[in-house]
Amino acid sequence: MANIDPSHTENAFEEIGRLQLQMERLKESAIAELQARRAAIQQELSTIERDLDKLAGVSRSGRGNFSPKRLVTLADLKDLLAAAPERTLNIRKENLDFLNVKTLVHANPSLLRLGGKAPWPTVTLLK
Q1: What is the Cα–Cα distance from 123 to 81, expressed in whole angstroms?
Q2: Alpha-carbon dihedral of residues 95, 101, 102, 103, nearest 10 degrees?
Q3: First vs last Cα of the chain: how many Å apart?
Q4: Which of 24, 54, 82, 101 counts the highest number of beta carbons within 10 A?
Q5: Do 123 and 88 touch, CB atoms closer than 8 A?
Q6: For residue range 49-100, what is the model confidence (pLDDT) as tens digits?
Q7: Based on the number of CB atoms within 10 Å of its own CB, is 104 exposed (0-12), middle (13-18) or buried (19 or more)?
Q8: What are phi and psi of 96, to 5 degrees?
Q9: pLDDT tens-place string over residues 22-49
Q10: Nearest residue to 105 (alpha-carbon basis) of 124, 119, 79, 87
């Protein structure tokens, strides 16, 4: 049976750990980039719909005239929360996309926390 060098095994485990961390960072970066692209496209579509309505003479009043929920990146959300009183925002009042915020909270539980009551959820910056 061949002798296995323990330092080589430890180095291999350390390298695996580094690669896993790098993969996680790349995944988070890709998610943030795609969310930012989606937000930009939704904003452009909203502008196009308003322009079309204006040209067609269509007036959207009441419930039909809603703006799409804002999608934010983790960095944007942290900036918003840092400037908010008690570092807490009402997701609905800020017109933020709840599922987007919920995903960010679950990905960063040591940084963000969901709260509030069902129709009026809040998000808080912990650090």
Answers
A1: 8
A2: 140
A3: 52
A4: 101
A5: yes
A6: 888 888 888 766 544 555 678 888 899 999 999 999 999 999 998 889 899 9
A7: buried
A8: -90, 150
A9: 999 999 999 989 988 888 888 888 888 8
A10: 124
Separation CA 21–CA 24 (nearest Å): 5
Between β-strands 88-90 and 112-117, what pairing exists: parallel, antiparallel or unpaired? unpaired
* Side chain identity, residue 61: S
C-alpha closest to that of 96 among 73, 65, 126 = 73
Q: What residues have CB less than 8 Å from 71, skipping those under 6 apart?
A: 35, 36, 38, 39, 42, 96, 97, 100
Contact 127, 98 (CB under 8 A): no
